């Protein structure tokens, strides 16, 4: 039974910082290829924020590059998103996800339920 649980969301003023955490259970951690954060702004589609691969490679959306940092425990277990210099347009529900590769090489994607981040002016 796969479960991803996010925490760390809340309300902050512009320029502040938050650190989101996502703990994954129910998966063989060695078979997780990628973990990532997406966010859904009010009235918008769900967009990529940052990814981290098993090997440690990281990628960021242009809108958060230089402000957000993704990291993880070693081995896989928990992924973090350190968010600095938050702006009002960062307000969104943030979702943690993981891509799992089974023994046949088939990929599956799992998601947490999300955590709300609200940034005020």
Question: What descriptive keywords fit this protein?
Answer:
single chain, 121 residues, mainly beta, four-stranded antiparallel beta sheet
Any chance you could write out the topology, listing elements then pairs?
Layout: E1 3-7, E2 10-13, E3 18-25, E4 32-40, E5 46-53, E6 58-60, E7 68-72, E8 78-83, E9 92-101, E10 107-111, E11 115-120
Parallel strand pairs: 2-11
Antiparallel strand pairs: 1-3, 3-8, 4-5, 4-9, 5-6, 7-8, 9-10, 9-11
Characterise this structure.
This protein is an all-beta fold. Helix content is 0%, strand content 57%. Strand 5 and strand 6 form a beta hairpin. It starts with a strand and ends with a strand. 26% of the residues are buried. The mean pLDDT is 94.
Helix content: under 10%
Number of strand segments: 11
| Global morphology | elongated
- Biggest β-sheet description: 7 strands, mixed
Q: Low-confidence stretches at least 5 residues in length (pLDDT < 50)? A: none
Provide the succession of SSEs. EEEEEEEEEEE
Query: Helix segment count?
Result: 0
Q: What portion of residues belong to β-strands?
A: over 45%
Give the overall average pLDDT. 94
Structural class comes to mainly beta
């Amino acid at each position: 039974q796969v479960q991803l649980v996010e925490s760390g969301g809340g309300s902050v003023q512009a320029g502040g910082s938050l650190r989101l955490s996502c703990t994954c259970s129910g998966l063989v951690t060695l078979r997780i290829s990628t973990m990532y954060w997406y966010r859904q702004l009010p009235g918008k589609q769900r967009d990529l924020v940052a990814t981290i691969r098993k090997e440690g490679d990281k990628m960021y959306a242009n809108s958060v590059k230089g402000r957000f940092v993704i990291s993880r425990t070693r081995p896989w277990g928990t992924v973090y998103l350190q968010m600095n210099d938050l702006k009002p347009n960062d307000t969104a529900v943030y979702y943690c996800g993981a891509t799992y590769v089974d023994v046949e090489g088939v990929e599956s994607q799992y998601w947490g339920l999300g955590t709300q981040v609200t940034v005020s002016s």
